[in-house]
TrEMBL record:
This is Multidrug efflux pump subunit AcrB. It comes from the Bacteria. Pfam families: ACR_tran. The chain crosses the membrane at residues 16-35, 337-356, 362-382, 435-457, 463-493, 522-542, 853-873, 880-900, 906-929, 956-975, 981-1005.
Length: 1021
């Protein structure tokens, strides 16, 4: 490289460079301890939940008049990917899902747009609709969850204590929000007997009006005197249930207390709100979320210290339990990755010391911490935490960042051996290799472009892989050209024997093999092409995968009863599950969420919304072996004990949440036709031996009692449908009539009939309806009763009824494998469907395909950047084509490594394959540059190719071996294993081919005859 020499500049300002090295180390150490720690990288949950309530509406009315209106408006949402909704009688819930290309700012702006546009049409919604309400905090992660159980304390006393603890924990640094789980809202019930009220001549309407009138909060005026202002307050407000029981009413000419007419008692919302249980005991939970950019390890320490102080003041009988602690998980993960990082450093140093010697190895040993010292402050500036992806990226980058330092050190050693001074030798690498190294570095970074810029949730999840690798590689280049020459001058000494060192045995074998390969150039080129073709044909043999399961010890147990089941049935099922888990030696502890899914204690968790029929348990096994044993036991138990329920047992997943691994969506305008097609799809899915627990997200209708009112008769009696519905709702479900202001709580006062009169269908016929004149008539006098059916809920996708067929997958079988096996049967079914009906693959397979498609969409950008950098460096189309022809050859090693190891080709492995293109191209660029340098000395193409390949043999092989061996610590891991094997196999094979295939191709392209003494060594090494 002519012109300015950065290495010479550094050597001429040694004190300044040493100062910069010290500053870099200090900044790196400080930044390392200040970097946030987390389990997974933060990624945006691009989903908002919109829900609204229309009390009394049927499922059909709710879908047509409420869901449809909202969805029509929501389809105009910017960046919309798809809408998904479920409709229940009187309730609609809509999931607004944005495209992966929407960045965090787009998402925030879009949620504002949703609120605004829905607000604009609120007046067009049916009368009586409550809402709509919006939840755009759907992605909040509550990494620390405490549960509190009590012995000898009332539920209210326990909640008071938990509320006080919540207030204290909110003051802990890094705590963003805290949610209560399973607290339950208190209610004061006023339960009356219909017959008793009728006998006493008490009008329910008048009774309710009196309760409301006495407890109302209204100003009574203010007296202004010459010296002060005095507010007037009227008594009568309810402070307790006893105040309500003591109210007097005039009936039949006498005064009666409410306690003489009805039972007044304090209880909890009926039916209950979602419940929370710990190790089989009812509990109240506190779920703690960390602020953005916080350190989960610091949060864990602070919360633990605060809980220690709080627990010391708790009365005996209230017991806190740590249900989920992400800080412990992250601490363990960071510790394991740091161990892997140190192991990788040790492996690379062993390779360096053994191959280069002690002094050159010392330069490599110092280059690693210097590079990391530059990386950590940049990570801090870019707000990249220490988490699963960034830590893995550091290990991957570590194996790559020694490349430039090795090249610089090797070139310095060569020039010292030839008699150059230390300064001349240390600056030689910059003159000859700096541009090629920089081009190779940029090409390697370009290989990670699809990781950083693909528009999908999966790519956002893995973005820090691109960022950290790019930072590390750029930092390594600067360290190699600024710090390494200075270290070389200080550490390296000229060899005692001047001139080229005697070639070793491995080198002699390589040179003889290379010459033989060039002599048989067409056999070499043809054999390489055949190997590449075979690897392409063998690709389908590698199992496909999206993201693997986590190696955490938790198991998720999902239990869905029939969709018309009550929460009482779900609670009974949860107790049976608790009984099974109690005393199991493989269980450390467990928590159960009745009527809802687990709170998002883990970012990639697929969160289930509240539904009375659903129960989810989080079972923490003692270790991974115990998790495997427990998995089988739980599956057998659920199959035996709950044969009519939909159940699944699964470990936590990695990557964006997708729910059931195998899914097919059946959609169409006719609900009955959709059901029939879904049953046929289920038959195909169930025929595959690997598919388990085939089920539907909705299917069976439930029954209802339809009260058909004779409107003419009702009008003669002075009754309307509104009056009848109001009376029925008051008697059966209860009507909130006022509120008791109890400390920090608002307790609803609910008027309803007694239990025996509410739960009996037979009592409906004799229900007394009030009419004019203080008289009553039975409901059966003007109404008939009949059973009917309707769907308890209906799912829709983009405004079309959609029924999803779901299934679990047998162990060691991937969803992609099952889908591929069923493809022919599904295609045959689709050809017979009307145009308005569709069957689409969903679940893991769909998400994987979408993510891969988003990556492939960015590949042209990656290739453009690569080609531009290569052309700028090579400035020759033939040389560019040579590099491009070598880059894909890594696929030979990738396929072989994955087939031999049995690892799947997952999303992360595909990213590794793309990154390989850059790594291989870097070696090819430097080798081509060396060949051209040899030719500039007057050598023929044959001799230049042989001599250049021989001179680059040691640094290229050292880099490849260091990279491959440096991957060993992460190769056994669940997440990084497939990528590690792909890179190890691909780089090892591609490096060998680069050193053999590329010089052979060069000679074949540019011609040239074999010299008389082809085996001679006319180069410096």
């Amino acid at each position: 490289m002519s012109g300015f020499n950065l290495s010479e500049w550094a050597l001429g300002r040694r004190s300044l460079v040493v100062y910069l090295m010290l500053i870099a180390v200090a900044a790196g150490v400080l930044s390392y301890f200040r970097l946030g720690r987390n389990e997974d990288p933060a990624f945006t949950i691009r989903t908002m939940v919109v829900h609204a309530v229309w009390p009394g509406a049927t499922a059909d009315e709710t879908m047509k008049q409420l869901t449809e209106r909202l969805e029509r408006q929501l389809q105009e949402t910017p960046h919309l990917d798809f809408l998904r909704s479920f409709t229940r009688p009187g309730l609609t819930t809509i999931f607004v899902n944005l495209k992966g290309s929407a960045n965090a700012r787009d998402v925030s702006d879009t949620w504002y747009h949703v609120r605004k546009t829905i607000g604009d049409i609120r007046h067009t919604l049916p009368a009586g609709v409550v809402g709509p309400f919006f939840d755009d905090d759907f992605g909040d992660t509550f990494g620390i969850v405490y549960g509190f159980t009590s012995d000898g304390f009332a539920q209210r006393e326990l909640r008071d204590r938990v509320e006080a603890i919540r207030s204290q924990l909110l003051a802990v640094p890094d705590v963003a929000k805290i949610e209560l789980l399973g607290a339950g809202e208190e209610v004061i019930f006023v339960e009356f007997s219909k017959q008793e009220l009728a006998n006493l001549g008490v009008d329910r309407t008048a009774l309710i009006a009196a309760l409301r009138a006495q407890n109302i909060v209204m100003p009574a005026g203010t007296i202004q005197t010459g010296t002060e202002r005095i507010s007037l307050r009227v008594s009568g407000s309810f402070l307790s249930e006893q105040d309500i029981a003591d109210i007097n009413f005039a009936a039949g000419g006498r005064m009666l207390r409410l306690s003489d007419l009805a039972m007044v008692r304090r209880g909890y919302v009926d039916p209950p709100q979602p419940l929370f249980r710990i190790n089989g005991r009812p509990a109240i939970g506190l779920a703690i979320a960390m602020r953005d950019g916080g350190d989960i390890l610091a949060l864990g320490r602070n919360v633990k210290a605060a809980m220690a102080r709080i627990t010391a003041d708790l009365p005996i009988g209230i017991e806190p339990s740590l249900v989920a602690d992400q800080a412990v998980v992250v601490g363990k993960a960071v510790g394991e990755f740091m161990t892997s990082l140190l192991q990788a450093i040790a492996i690379i140093l062993v390779v360096s010391f053994s191959s280069l010697g002690v002094r050159p190895g010392l330069i490599i040993a110092l280059a690693i911490p210097l590079t990391l010292a530059v990386v950590f402050p940049v990570m801090a500036v870019l707000q990249i935490d220490m988490q699963r992806i960034s830590l893995g990226a550091l290990i991957i980058a570590l194996a790559l960042l020694v490349d430039d330092a090795m090249t610089t050190t090797d070139a310095t050693l060569v020039r010292l051996a030839l008699g150059d001074s230390k300064v001349e030798a240390a600056s030689y690498a910059f003159r000859t290799h700096a541009l090629a190294m920089l081009a190779g570095t940029l090409v390697t970074i370009a290989g990670f472009i699809p990781v950083g810029f693909a528009a999908s949730a999966a790519s956002e999840y893995t973005f820090s892989l691109f960022a950290v690798v790019a930072i590390a590689l750029l930092a390594s280049w600067f360290v190699a050209v600024i710090f390494a020459p200075l270290l070389g001058v200080a550490v390296l000494v000229p060899p005692k024997q001047k001139g080229a060192a005697a070639p070793g045995r491995v080198f002699r074998l390589y040179r003889r093999f290379l010459i033989s390969a060039i002599r048989a150039k067409w056999v070499t080129l043809g054999g390489t092409a055949a190997l590449f073709a075979a690897s392409v044909l063998a690709l389908p043999l590698i199992p496909q995968q999206f993201f693997p399961s986590s190696d955490r010890p938790e198991l998720l147990v999902d239990l869905s009863l029939p969709q018309n089941a009550s929460i009482f049935a779900s609670e009974t099922a949860a107790k049976r599950l608790d009984k099974m888990l109690t005393g199991d030696p493989d269980v450390a502890h467990w928590s159960t969420y009745v009527g809802r899914g687990a709170i998002r204690f883990y970012l990639p968790l697929s969160v289930e919304l509240p539904n009375d029929f659903f129960t989810q348990a989080v079972v923490v096994a003692r270790d991974i072996g115990a998790r495997v044993r427990l998995h089988g036991k739980l599956e057998r138990f659920l199959a035996d004990e709950f044969p009519n329920a939909i159940s699944s047992v699964s470990p936590l997943g990695l990557g964006p949440p997708v729910g059931w691994p195998l899914q097919y969506r059946v959609s169409g305008p006719d609900v009955e036709r959709v059901r029939d097609i879904a049953l046929e799809v289920a038959r195909i899915v169930g025929a595959d031996p690997a598919a388990k627990s085939v089920n539907f997200d909705w299917m069976e209708p439930d029954r209802q009692v339809r009260i058909r009112v004779n409107q003419d008769e009702a009008r003669l009696l002075g009754l309307s449908s509104q009056t009848i519905s109001t009376v029925l709702n008051t008697v059966i479900s209860g009507t909130p009539v006022t509120q008791v202001r109890d400390d920090i709580y608002l307790v609803d006062v609910v008027v309803r009939a007694t239990d025996e009169q509410r739960v009996s269908l037979a009592s409906l016929r004799t229900l007394q309806m009030p009419i004019a004149g203080g008289r009553t008539v039975p409901l059966s006098q003007f109404a008939s009763f009949e059973y009917d059916q309707e769907f308890p809920l209906i799912w829709r996708r983009d405004r079309v009824p959609t029924l999803t067929v779901r299934a679990a997958i047998a162990d060691r079988v991937l969803p992609e494998t099952v889908v591929n096996r069923q493809a022919a049967a599904m295609a045959k079914l689709k050809t017979a469907l009307p145009a308005s009906n569709r069957v689409v693959v969903g679940g893991t397979v769909e998400e994987s395909r979408n993510s891969q498609a988003s990556v492939m969409a960015v590949v042209p950008v990656m290739l453009f950047v690569m080609f531009t950098v290569l052309m700028a460096q090579l400035q020759s189309f033939p040389r560019l084509l040579m590099v491009v022809s070598v880059a894909p050859l890594g696929l030979i090693g990738v396929v072989a490594a994955l087939l031999l190891s049995g690892r799947p080709l997952g999303f992360v492995a595909i990213l590794g394959v793309l990154a390989l293109l850059g790594m291989i191209s870097k070696n090819a660029v430097i080798l081509i540059g060396q060949i051209e340098a040899e030719r500039s000395l007057g050598k023929a193409p044959w001799q230049a190719a042989v001599d250049a390949s021989s001179s680059r043999f040691r640094p290229i092989m050292l880099t490849a071996v260091s990279t491959v061996l440096g991957m060993i610590p992460i190769a056994p891991t669940v997440f990084w294993g497939p990528m590690a094997f792909a890179i190890m196999g691909g780089l090892l094979v591609a490096t060998g081919l680069t050193l053999v295939f590329l010089p052979t191709l060069y000679v074949a392209w540019f011609g040239g005859k074999e010299p008389a003494d082809a085996s001679g060594s006319s180069f410096a090494a």
